[in-house]
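LAB NOTEBOOK - FOLDING QUEUE
OPERATOR: T.R.
BATCH SIZE: 2
PURPOSE: Compare the predicted structure-token outputs for two unrelated chains run back to back under identical settings.
PRIORITY: normal
REVIEWER: second-year student, initials M.K.

ITEM 1
FIELD SEQUENCE / FIELD STRUCTURE:
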Amino acid sequence: MNKTTRLLAVPALSIGMLAMAGAPAMADHANGSYTAEFGQLSGTTGTASFTMDINDTEATVNLQVSGLAETFMDGPYPHVQHIHGGAAGECPTADNDENGDGIVSTTDGAGSYGGILTTLSTSGDTSAAAGLDLTLGGQGGNYSVERTFEMNKETLDSLEAGTAVVVIHGLDPATVTATEEAFNAESDLDPALPLGATSPALCGVVTASQMGAMPEGGADTGVAQETNNLGMIALGGGLVLAAAVGGTYVVRRRAADRA
């Protein structure tokens, strides 16, 4: 089994907080179209566009991602993304970097965007539990998620309340605003993986738009600024990346990649 196979076979990525897998939604209060303008975190150069139409409990999602980290352990870099909610409905900024290491970790940002409500998986399960499977995440630096699925009540409620936020994880060691040592420090979510690999790269607040409206251009680099108390978020069941064979992964900057 090669390194890529081990990486994708073992991590059951548990970024789900509070396991918000409620009963099917039974309301149409969130009907309409939504979009998000993404801000870049911790030195990422990636961009994304997002649209979502809600019809009763049916969601049609179109997420286009480009320019993120391409490889991890000599295989496609798995990027996971979710609709978070239940908190301030904002994206974190560098001011949320609690220890000043140059990386806004998942824990640093949790007070702003809250726990997982929906996993924007490339196929299959879209519940919070689907965040446990990296094979359902985007692979490589450029990918898309285009699908229609049944939306859960928690996400519909968050959309109506204006607190839904899309977060895309996985920083590039070649562009991160941190040292190699900081990138490869123990993840706040799983000590066997690098902090940079589990931290958010792009974040966008979900807002209502006109029906059928599409976002123009790439990601907006501006994000709302707010410092929040992490005590408001229960990280029970938090973001846990299981490491293959108990090993610790190190991602190194490669000069060849920057040539």
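ITEM 2
FIELD SEQUENCE / FIELD STRUCTURE:
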Amino acid sequence: MSTTRQPGTYDAGATAGARPLCVKVCGLTRAADVEAAVDAGADLLGFNFYPASARCVSMTEATPLIRMLPRHVLAVGIFVDPTPGDVRRAIDAGVRLLQFHGDEPAEFCGAFEVPAMKALRLRCLGELATAALAYPDGWWLLADAADERRRGGTGKALVPEPIDARLARRLFLAGGLTAESVADAVRALRPLGVDVCSGVEESPGRKDRALLRAFVSHAKTA
């Protein structure tokens, strides 16, 4: 498995072919699925702390799952407009990357001792450059399809279209990706990483081991 590069250390100047693609699997709720995602070769695992999500886990539930991760797999906490206390409890539990999906200002996202990734709600990838202006070059970004009724990952796909290469190098592409579609998306955009949740599930919060293996393999060989 490849070693995940954290914000601030990732070589944004490297050519696309020289950069290992990061694969992030979100919505982990069970120990068996954590094990399956790690075995499949995922680089980051996301734990959803948004109460309205069907995949929400409490801090009590998430802590033993995070402790299962080997050193080279990064635990990501997913939040929607949390309190500072919510975030700090997740950091204490072992979260090492903060992913914000709400209306949090950049000042809030960057106020903690671990790096942040901001999810940008976009109607199309053409809006990415403007939406990214509020976040410094060292930040990771996640492209999330806009949905006024849903937060924390919508499961909707964004149509791949040309974007600035430097933005692509700090972008995780999310929304509606599956083992069948991820390779084309990676080849079209050459992003820093891809993010999957429902595309590798048998039901909300329950991952499918075969789909996990296929997704990671197709993404990393694209």
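REVIEWER COMMENT (ITEM 2): The chain has one domain: 18-220.
FOLLOW-UP: none requested
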